[in-house]
Amino acid sequence: MTESTSSQPVLIDKFGRRVEYVRLSVTDRCDFRCVYCMSEEMEFLPREQVLSLEEIYNLAKSFTDLGVNKLRLTGGEPLVRKGVLGLIEKMGQLPAELLITTNGSQLPKMAKDLKRFGVDRLNISLDSLQRDKFQRLTRSDRLHQVLAGIDAACEAGFNGIKLNAVVLKGRNDDEVVDLVEFARDREIDITFIEEMPLGAITEHDRAESYCSSDEILEMLNQEYDLLSSTEKTGGPSKYYRMSDSRSKIGFISPHSHNFCGECNRVRVTVEGRLLLCLGNEHSMDLREVMRSHPGDNELLKQKLIESMDLKPERHYFDLEAEPQIVRFMNMTGG
After folding, report:
1. Is the confidence at residue 322, as pLDDT, over 80?
2. Considering the entire predicted model, what is its pTM?
3. Which domain holds residue 198?
C-alpha cells in the first residue's frame, strides 16, 4: 500500500502507475451483436453469477475511497440492465467523474435521466452511417435509433460526448471522413479504435480486416489540417485537433502504438472479476470476497490494494495467432 500526501491509501502498482480510472461492467448482455465483439449466437451468464447492482455500487464506492476519480459503466450494453438508472443515480453522488459507454440504442428515452442523475460524459459507438453496413457490422437494423440517441444526448447537454468507431478494412474504412464530418456537424469528438483480439469469432478474420491508426491518420491528413494535441482525458487516446472545428479526433492503438506505460486503468467484469489488464488474464475474484464477507468494505478495499501487485507491465496482441484472451469483449467490459 502506498500513501498519498493526505495519508489516504491509493492504488499504485509495482511499476509506479497510479490507478485512478475504473471501468465497471454492469451486464454481459447487449441488444446488438457487433462482429468484432461477440459471436452471433451467445450464451450469457446466469443471474446468480452476475454482480448485483448493490455489489457494483459497493465496488464503485470502495474504489473512490482509494483515490479513483473516474468511473465508467460499460457492458455489453449497460443501459439494457433492469434497474440501472437507480445505480447510476447513486453513483452520480460519488466523488468521481461518471461516464458511460453505450451503443446509443437506449438514449432516445434515457439521455435526459442520465444527465439528471450525474453522468458527466458519454462514449457512443457508431461504426457506420450507412444502414446496410451498420446492419452487417452490428447484426441489427437500428441505425435510426442510434442516430436519434446521439441527437438526444446532444440536446441533454452532457459535459462531453464522444463517438467510438472500430474501423475494419473493407467494411467501413471508406467512411472515416464521413464519420468525422458527422462529429464536426454536432461539435462532438470521435475516436477511431483498432480492433482488439478478444474471443474467437469464426465468422470474422481479424488479420484480414485490421486497419491501423496510422492508415486512418493518413486518410484524414488528406482532408483536414490536423494538429497534434497533448490533451489527455484519462484514457489511452492520442488526440488531434482541427484548426476549423471544436471537435477532436482520437486514436486508440493497442497494436500499432502500445500505450501500457501510462496505464492508469483496471476493469471489473460483470461477474466480479477484477482485470488488471485488458490483454492479460491477471485478475482477482471480487465477487468471492464480497459474498464471503458481506458488508466488509474494509476487507474489500484491502483486497483492491493487494491486487495492484498482479497488474502486468503490458499486453501483447498477435492478430495472426489464436486469441490469447478467450473471453469476448462483452464479457470484459467495452
Report:
1. no
2. 0.86
3. 2-332
